[in-house]
Amino acid sequence: MQIKTPQTITSKQFLEIRLQTETICNGLKPEDTAIQPIDYVSPPKWHLAHTTWFFEQFVLSEFKDNYKVFHPDFGYYFNSYYNSIGDRVVRADRGLMTRPALSEVLTYRAYVNTQLAQLLDKGVSKKIERIIEIGLQHEQQHQELLIYDIKYIFGHQPSFPQLEYHINLIPETDKHNFIKIAEGVYEIGHKGDNFCWDNELGRHKTYIHNFEISNRLVTNKEYIEFIDSGGYKDFNLWHADGWDFIQKNNLTCPMYWHNVDGKWMYYTLQGFKDVDENLPVNHVSFYEAFAFAQFKGMRLPTEFEWEVAASQFNYGQLWEWTNSAYLPYPNYSKPDGAIGEYNGKFMINTMVLRGSSVATAHNHSRLTYRNFFNPEMRWQFSGIRLVK
Amino acid sequence: MQIKTPQTITSKQFLEIRLQTETICNGLKPEDTAIQPIDYVSPPKWHLAHTTWFFEQFVLSEFKDNYKVFHPDFGYYFNSYYNSIGDRVVRADRGLMTRPALSEVLTYRAYVNTQLAQLLDKGVSKKIERIIEIGLQHEQQHQELLIYDIKYIFGHQPSFPQLEYHINLIPETDKHNFIKIAEGVYEIGHKGDNFCWDNELGRHKTYIHNFEISNRLVTNKEYIEFIDSGGYKDFNLWHADGWDFIQKNNLTCPMYWHNVDGKWMYYTLQGFKDVDENLPVNHVSFYEAFAFAQFKGMRLPTEFEWEVAASQFNYGQLWEWTNSAYLPYPNYSKPDGAIGEYNGKFMINTMVLRGSSVATAHNHSRLTYRNFFNPEMRWQFSGIRLVK
Amino acid sequence: MQIKTPQTITSKQFLEIRLQTETICNGLKPEDTAIQPIDYVSPPKWHLAHTTWFFEQFVLSEFKDNYKVFHPDFGYYFNSYYNSIGDRVVRADRGLMTRPALSEVLTYRAYVNTQLAQLLDKGVSKKIERIIEIGLQHEQQHQELLIYDIKYIFGHQPSFPQLEYHINLIPETDKHNFIKIAEGVYEIGHKGDNFCWDNELGRHKTYIHNFEISNRLVTNKEYIEFIDSGGYKDFNLWHADGWDFIQKNNLTCPMYWHNVDGKWMYYTLQGFKDVDENLPVNHVSFYEAFAFAQFKGMRLPTEFEWEVAASQFNYGQLWEWTNSAYLPYPNYSKPDGAIGEYNGKFMINTMVLRGSSVATAHNHSRLTYRNFFNPEMRWQFSGIRLVK
Amino acid sequence: MQIKTPQTITSKQFLEIRLQTETICNGLKPEDTAIQPIDYVSPPKWHLAHTTWFFEQFVLSEFKDNYKVFHPDFGYYFNSYYNSIGDRVVRADRGLMTRPALSEVLTYRAYVNTQLAQLLDKGVSKKIERIIEIGLQHEQQHQELLIYDIKYIFGHQPSFPQLEYHINLIPETDKHNFIKIAEGVYEIGHKGDNFCWDNELGRHKTYIHNFEISNRLVTNKEYIEFIDSGGYKDFNLWHADGWDFIQKNNLTCPMYWHNVDGKWMYYTLQGFKDVDENLPVNHVSFYEAFAFAQFKGMRLPTEFEWEVAASQFNYGQLWEWTNSAYLPYPNYSKPDGAIGEYNGKFMINTMVLRGSSVATAHNHSRLTYRNFFNPEMRWQFSGIRLVK
């Protein structure tokens, strides 16, 4: 993997990023951290342990002299999808492991943090530093997933608990207009020496046609108009698979929305509230984003259009669905070894999202970042930007 | 319901039974009490709350002056299957409720215990006392279910935790023989004034034919012979549904058994161990019990044969599968109201088990007790007694 | 199997019964005979072949000198559930076999009929005659299943085709009253030398309590009252499994019923018609029969009550659900070999129906006959008789 | 839809194309035409009727004076997925309709053919001619689907029937080499006045990077090497979804292949045979095509690369999987009305195949044709061409 890590990582930086994970979990009860309410939501306790295992497996066990693993079975428990490393608890069974308990997982984190900080303080080779950088980027990705998963856990129980850690969307108040981009050959993909994932590399030319892109995200107010106009009942607006998806699941609104006596309310991490019409609509699937665009007589941008235009508008509230399938760039090749399993094997049946969200870790975003989800996923922080 | 409760219940007796539930849960981590690994296993935390809700709903709210419910939503959260009482969290979603946390549930128990004890100390009418008696019997049933559910939770995770509370089977060492029972008309069903469930009532005559019944349960040694003789591979021994069941689930041994390098081991609440050949075989489905009997050229008793013969042998280690479907006795009628939903509505697709088990609460057994499970269930403490 | 066949079977009798199967299929298109719309409905073409295979496999191949099988692969194609005979096409895949075509199956029937008639004309041993008798009884059972399956195929397509072969229910016009049966020991099970199945044998004493049984079946008029009174919406009337069953399948009426602009209509083998209020209600599951009885404050008879009382009322329009699980009689033992797979292995999860129906073959009924189906099955001709 | 139909269609041309559908079905038994063995395979009888309904619905009923529909219900029976037209038999229920029988469907075809031929002979407007052209293109697409579906029906029953109509692959005997294509801006999409589908329109520029593409398809011999080298057991070669797909379905070879005593055999429409090593490998999913390319250290072409390079090699034996998701071209817009449902709504979760196959109708192929299937589909005629 041609990932670049020009700066030296200090133990302070390492610990700062690591402790952010604990900060997100502030106020969680041990019970909250143990359950897996649906296969794609992992127990928070598992995130806490799995990100730690990454450093133990790929750094400490390989490069620290006389390193003693915290527990001989944790490798088996907390490997996620790295088939190369050997057996592992299958994803759907993460919620069966009530043990190790949260307290033991937190001890595991402290143990590995200390050992890793010692290693950094002694100084490490560029090669090791690169792996640590990947581990920290991986940690930050799990920080965002943690927020999605906690929201799912809290938002699917009758008492609607709140999260202490605060995450807030802000109103989309910019005056609405469309930015014009001229046809031509553009360069796409990461450049420079900063960190990026393998899937962003291979900067290459692409031909873009004329288009105009909205300077802001679709709001809840606009989305309610779509609902009220019968958007969920008009199959002409939907992909065939999208129509099946909403029929089968009886969907009539974004995830976390409830119609209470004719009024739209939703669960937020700060509690159950009236839908705020000025905020950008969140928790929509690709299918819903596409249907909304059809309804407006517009479309979603491709990821290439997005990358070309993004420096001309504000982003960062919600990941933005594009109409691009997640596919390799020209000359992409999967890195060798376990770390190579990270991105390439998901390049089918997923659509690209660009930008970042209020749940994204600090500094964990860039113009060329390619996020991706299956078109029916809705638990992530995802919104809509239109192109005409 | 014609349930008899001749004795006066004291607050001391009440608390003793109630605290036994906490005792069973000794040493559980909060995480252990929150998950629902499969639809028929409830989170231990749910048992703790649901049994408490019973006293709050049916006693305190109805009969205690100025009683203030502990929490207004707990009725909705912890109703189990009493459709008559109104909305409730569906069974399969019990594992979504991480809140109230274990600590709050324990406070709920203490609050209700105190209130109920006060009520008892003041003296209650026979009618109220009957409901409390039912509540305590219900508590004791959940004490046994708790043990099943904890065993399932601990037995399905890679670290195989142990339970502090001790439950032990003892070897079936009685010299093996068969007890002969003579043909004739016998009386079946509860008599006397002690507590019993509605399904035991309607003492009635039944005609029993000559039979001989084993004085002891089938042991692990005998069951291993069945396995080694290809018992799980010979469809002639099985019901059609039983054969489908073991094929579909790839079953080759009782629940909790693992073949480790050719040796049979199993998870017990005291850890993962070699199978003890002298103990009675446990955790078999009705299908397996039936197939084993076919293999031996014998059969299972009917529940009537069992009731007639049981005073002549020892029982109480494991619930014993009978070849009787769980059906109403002559003149059975479902009691009115919510409590009437308790037994009658399960009188289809279930088979009767008789006796009791080492997981059964003290004094919670009698000759006429009718337990029942679907023929494929295996997580309960169930064994085999043969008839020829 | 201690089945008795006192009379000598002539080739004329044999052919008469066999040709009745073709008569039922009169007017079917080849396409009608090929499909399997749901796993429990077999293609009519398969019934025609399977019943023929029975005679080829168990009689001609075993006992006719120099018999040449019609086609070497038909044994594999048309074995039904006789695991003892070897590999077979699994039940759910019967609808994949468009070949052999109907015309070839009819040739197969003619070939085997001729060969078998020759054998009978030459004279056969008692042992062979017994197997032929079983084959003919088996043929008659399939004649009834054929009618159920054709009705399902015709009743689940938009053009609602009619069957040429006529089957008619008649109004239940007897003045309604209840027949009293006195308590005591009665004998149950087959006696005499006529043919019966193994599951009727072992005539034995049983103790019956006082009861009163209706002299006629429940009518469509009465059943519509149940529907109109909200019977399908009141969980108190239903078994827990029955309630789940009707919820999951959105059931609000018997199979083949449709509410057309507020009027109840149904598919019959003579076309789509208004429901005739005076006819007995047909195509109800055990769950619906039970709930209807609860609604009336009565109950279903046990199969023993039914057998004791049946000589005192008319039956034969519809099989009558009893509240007895299908279980072995005392001293029942499964016959050896393939024929032994016939009944015993279904003695779980099924309920007994008694009597017979207008779809039952001529002479294929008797007081002791035990039919059985899973409690949710509705495609068979099944009605309701009440006990109080 | 900007579809171009420059030539005048004669009734002779119309009938020629229509009768080809009957020719493909030569020798089918009525039973073969009635079943739907899996949801994505339609009964051949349904194809025969549905393609006819298209002409009746969109041409005769709209434009022929005094046209009398053949049967008033056929519109409901044989609409496929045109939600705009109203109710329809859901796709999975096509196999329930044994009626109309094959003979009636053939009469329907003759009736509509005659009426349509009359209309053509009288002369029609350009607008009508366009719709007829679409109907004929649609007919030809169903001709290919018919072959896939018949092969599925015949290939999934134990007697492996043969199809009279002959379809043959020929050996890939061209000397193997790779064709180099130079980087630059290329034009993609249909040009000229001939017929094309809406999804090919919007000819536009795209930037292509240097690549080399194989001059021939992957052969069975090469694919067997992949199998023998453990290709189906090495997760590193597969997408995550692909790996799950082959695990869940226990796949170890292409569809229709069977390992008989260590030798690879397959069902072809000319019977069950040894795999011919020189023929191109057929019936692979996108997942398998991708994994094979990974195994060879190469990759699949994008659809744009394919279109640019295709004039330099032979194609037409098998549709060729590309690594392009099926997405709209720039400025694509869905045509209005029912015909607009044809392509756009499938632009998610599908991958593009290019070229054509030996099952494709004569003249029904062109460089810009975009076929598409879900990545797990294998019943279509699909092969592999590599890029390095």
Structural summary, described in words:
- Four copies of one chain form a homotetramer.
- By secondary structure, chain A is of the alpha+beta class.
- The first copy, chain A, has helices at 11-24, 44-63, 74-78, 102-122, 126-155, 220-228, 240-248, 286-295, 303-309, and strands at 178-181, 184-188, 204-208, 211-214, 257-260, 263-268, 271-274, 319-325, 351-354, 371-373, 382-383.
- In chain A, helix 1 runs parallel beside helix 5.
- Chain A has a four-stranded mixed beta sheet with strand order 10-9-8-11.
- Chain A folds into two domains: 11-155; 178-383, paralog of FGE (formylglycine-generating enzyme), CATH 3.90.1580.
- Chain A is globular and about 65 Å long.
- Chains in contact: A-B, A-D, B-C, C-D.
- The interface between B and C is large, with 36 and 36 residues.
Total count of helical runs of at least 4 residues of chain A: 9
Using only C-alpha atoms, the radius of gyration of chain A works out to: 21 Å
For this structure, the quaternary state is: homotetramer
Distance between the termini of chain A: 37 Å
Helix content of chain A: 25-40%
Give the second-level CATH assignment, the architecture of the largest domain in chain A.
Answer: Alpha-Beta Complex
**Strand tally of chain A, please?**
11
Shape of chain A: globular
Unreliable runs of chain A: none
Q: Element order, helices and strands of chain A?
A: HHHHHEEEEHHEEEHHEEEE
Task: Write the CATH homologous superfamily of the largest domain in chain A.
Answer: paralog of FGE (formylglycine-generating enzyme)
CATH class designation of the largest domain in chain A: Alpha Beta
Characterize the main sheet of chain A: 4 strands, mixed
CATH topology of the largest domain in chain A: paralog of FGE (formylglycine-generating enzyme)
Strand arrangement in the largest pleated sheet of chain A: 10-9-8-11
Give the amount of beta strand of chain A, in percent: 5-15%
Number of separate structural domains of chain A: 2
